[in-house]
Design goal:
Low-confidence stretches of chain B: none
Oligomer: heterodimer
Number of helices of chain A: 9
Radius of gyration of chain A: 21 Å
Shape of chain A: elongated
Order of helices and strands of chain A: HHEHEHEHEHEHEHEH
Helix content of chain A: 40-55%
Largest interface: A-B, 28 and 37 residues
Mean pLDDT of chain B: 86
Helix content of chain B: over 70%
Distance between the termini of chain A: 69 Å
Low-confidence stretches of chain A: 183-192
Strand order of the largest sheet of chain B: 1-2
Structural class of chain A: alpha/beta
Number of strands of chain A: 7
Number of strands of chain B: 2
Largest sheet of chain B: 2 strands, antiparallel
Radius of gyration of chain B: 19 Å
Largest sheet of chain A: 5 strands, parallel
Mean pLDDT of chain A: 82
Chain lengths: ~210, ~190
């Protein structure tokens, strides 16, 4: 029995030591980053983020646009951050981190930066703030919507109202981006600049 | 899958895990009040050994399952800290454990094996739940006071989680060795 106890103690020490070594030596090397990207663990959708915020899941959300853009409009619960903040600030390790920007490039760069810093649970919003506005803040339902689209819209409308958004009904089909109601690789492609959408929201006072 | 559909397998898994947990507690001898109270007199350190073993196993398992991509640790719920109510709760729990010789889990195990003290503690547990719930309105201010958010050792120590895991595993092994020595000294 003593022999078994000793073996288990040695195993615990080895696994603990390996855990420390894996983080001290920076496990998020190119292989780890490539594996996350290949598995799609690097990004999240605006709707998934909204559902997690609504469910009260603890997480840190960072807006990487300029301070001025952040002040005009940002995802609820998000804090403003710059690349300098992400490089130096001691961010909480116990909660997932989600970053977004005006586009996916800057947010993806921030994701890589945080992963290299050793933060494991990081994701970026794939189409940035545009995606939040288009899907969560102002989900749109086409005039000739199908039953499946109406059902999906109802779910988004509830989410949208929770965040003080404005679901849009009877939108001409031409204004709805291709792939709007699909997920996976069928991405929503921003058809307008995010800044224009934010300006429109501010004009309406919402 | 709707919420009610997913609740059934979740409850079944919880039931199975609860059964295994109880069986392991009983196998470890924690259904006996003497074993539990022996902890406070340093006469029997089984509780420390069993619970610390479970803690280290879960900690290492969660970390490496996450690394293997089989568990997303970032989505695992970490309970929030409320300093004052949790300190009061800890004192009440400790006092109750010292008085009864059983905690909620071990009282179920003791009751299941026919021990009357286990049944008495379970009755106390149910009465306590009822009293707490009926007095909740007046206790709510204390219950929700001093919220500190989600706190973990890596965040408090500003250390990577892997380093904290190594420190806790090392401390556990030292504690196990000290406990073995202490129990050996008692027996000789």
């Amino acid at each position: 029995m003593i022999g078994l106890h000793r073996s288990l103690a040695v195993a615990a020490m080895l696994l603990g030591g390996a855990a420390a070594a894996s983080e001290v030596t920076g496990s998020a090397g190119p292989r780890s980053l490539a594996s996350d990207i290949a598995a799609g663990r690097d990004w999240t959708t605006a709707v998934a983020l909204a559902e997690r915020i609504k469910a009260g899941e603890p997480m840190s959300v960072f807006d990487l646009r300029t301070r001025d853009e952040y002040e005009r409009f940002h995802i609820p619960s998000a804090a403003h951050a710059t690349f300098a903040t992400l490089i130096d600030a001691p961010l909480p390790r116990s909660v997932p981190i989600v970053v977004y920007a005006g586009d996916s490039v800057r947010a993806a760069q921030a994701w890589a930066l945080l992963r290299v810093r050793g933060y494991r649970h990081v994701a970026y919003v794939r189409e940035g703030l545009y995606e939040w506005i288009a899907r969560v803040h102002e989900p749109a339902l086409a005039l000739d919507a199908t039953a499946a689209e109406r059902m999906a819209f109802e779910r988004l409308a509830v989410l949208s109202r929770y965040f003080g958004g404005r679901p849009r009904l009877d939108v001409p089909r031409a204004e709805i981006p291709a792939g709007y109601w699909t997920t996976g690789d069928d991405r929503v492609r921003p058809s307008m600049a995010t800044a224009l959408l934010v300006a429109a929201i501010r004009r309406r006072g919402c | 899958m709707t919420g009610s559909d997913s609740a059934i397998p979740s409850l079944a898994i919880a039931f199975a895990l609860g059964g295994v947990f109880g069986w392991l507690l009983e196998r470890a001898g924690l259904g006996s009040a003497r074993t539990l109270v022996g902890q406070f007199y340093l006469a029997n350190l089984t509780v420390l050994q069993v619970l610390f073993s479970a803690l280290v196993t879960a900690m290492l398992g969660a970390f490496w399952l996450d690394r293997a991509g089989l568990l997303e640790l970032g989505t695992v719920y970490v309970p929030e800290t409320f300093a004052v109510p949790q300190a009061i709760g800890g004192l009440l729990f400790g006092g109750g454990l010292l008085l009864a010789g059983l905690c909620p889990g071990t009282s179920c195990v003791a009751a299941a094996t026919g021990r009357r003290d286990g049944l008495a503690v379970m009755a106390g547990l149910v009465i306590g739940i009822l009293v707490f719930n009926s007095a909740f309105d007046s206790l709510e201010r204390v219950y929700a006071s001093t919220p500190l958010g989600t706190r973990t050792l890596p965040d408090l120590l500003h250390l990577p989680s892997g380093v904290v895991i190594a420190l806790v595993a090392g401390a556990a092994v030292l504690l196990f060795a000290a406990a073995e020595r202490q129990m050996g000294r008692r027996q000789s």
